[in-house]
């Protein structure tokens, strides 16, 4: 089936590609924490030996971890393929609301594996039409219909920074380092870095990072809006899980309609009027499906005084 990565006018999931290696989602009990994988063989036993991407399901939240700590979680072709598979599986699973992307072993991701590129350049075959194929880092062209949180520790640089930019929110540890480190070696940003970074932090600040390749720490990233939360070292994943559980607890149709509208207005809307039209067309159906019920709960006393429940 053909790949389809960019938004259409439909309000549902934008990406419709389904890899041959998945298509049967493995259902984990909401009462337990299970490892699972979409690769052939079904549910995992919990071991991570030999796996470049490890996923763990926690109720309606799934964590997706890059597991190549020996190379600071640099992504090779196998890892890129697995990342795309797992995020596509998350997006198509009706029982999952939020995903968390993180790295095992103290680093988020050090970018694409330059040793693989140097030693096997012919093996890297890239599709130039972004509507027909994934990016070098895997899911960079894939636009999720549900929230993704990046839990950033250690290095999130080069293509690793681009993966962090794919997320809706970034929870960053105090000692984390972000930056366009690939500037030093002539490796271009072709996983959305030049597209998403200026949208998130503004063109001037984005060009500062893109042109110099300099490192940026957690506090500066927070001031820029690149980080959404800064937490003590070792706590990014736990903080991201708490944030994901909060987001997952809200009425999901409303949340996804508002998210979709914000994304459309930022990236796709040709005019203010069309952005407003998109917002109302996707918001009105939610009034009957969720807002009336919510209003009834409010009149019964829930959430009054600004309380979250």
Automatic annotation (TrEMBL):
GO terms for molecular function: catalytic activity. InterPro entries: ClpP/crotonase-like_dom_sf, Enoyl-CoA_hyd/isom_CS, Enoyl-CoA_hydra/iso. Pfam families: ECH_1 (PF00378). It comes from the Eukaryota. Signal peptide: none annotated. Belongs to the enoyl-CoA hydratase/isomerase family. NCBIfam families: PRK08259.1 (NF006108). This is Uncharacterized protein. It comes from Etheostoma spectabile. The lineage of its organism: Eukaryota, Metazoa, Chordata, Craniata, Vertebrata.
């Amino acid at each position: 089936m053909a790949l389809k990565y960019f938004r259409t006018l439909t309000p549902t999931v934008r990406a419709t590609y389904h890899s041959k290696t998945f298509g049967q989602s493995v259902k984990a009990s909401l009462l337990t924490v299970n490892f699972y994988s979409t690769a052939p063989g079904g549910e995992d036993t919990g071991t991570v030996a030999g796996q470049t991407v490890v996923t763990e399901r926690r109720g309606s939240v799934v964590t997706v971890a890059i597991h190549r700590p020996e190379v600071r979680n640099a992504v090779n072709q196998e890892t890129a393929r697995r990342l795309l598979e797992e995020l596509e599986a998350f997006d198509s699973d009706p029982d999952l609301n939020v995903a968390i992307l993180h790295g095992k072993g103290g680093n988020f991701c050090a970018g694409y594996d330059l040793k693989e590129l140097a030693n096997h350049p012919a093996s890297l075959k890239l599709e130039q039409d972004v509507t027909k194929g994934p990016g070098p880092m895997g899911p960079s062209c894939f636009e999720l219909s549900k929230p993704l949180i990046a839990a950033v520790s250690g290095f999130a640089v080069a293509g690793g920074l681009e993966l962090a930019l794919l997320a809706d929110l970034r929870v960053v540890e105090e000692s984390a380092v972000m930056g366009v480190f690939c500037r030093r070696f002539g490796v271009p940003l072709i996983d959305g870095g030049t597209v998403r970074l200026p949208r998130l932090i503004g063109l001037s600040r984005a060009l500062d990072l893109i042109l110099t390749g300099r490192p940026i720490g957690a506090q500066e990233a927070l001031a820029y809006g690149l980080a959404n939360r800064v937490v003590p070292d070792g706590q990014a994943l736990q903080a991201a899980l708490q944030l994901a559980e909060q987001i997952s607890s809200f009425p999901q149709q409303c949340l996804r309609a508002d998210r979709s509208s914000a994304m459309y207005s930022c990236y796709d809307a040709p005019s203010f009027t069309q952005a407003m039209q998109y917002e109302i067309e996707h918001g009105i159906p939610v009034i009957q499906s969720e807002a009336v019920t919510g209003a009834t709960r409010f009149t019964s006393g829930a959430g009054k005084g600004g309380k979250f429940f």
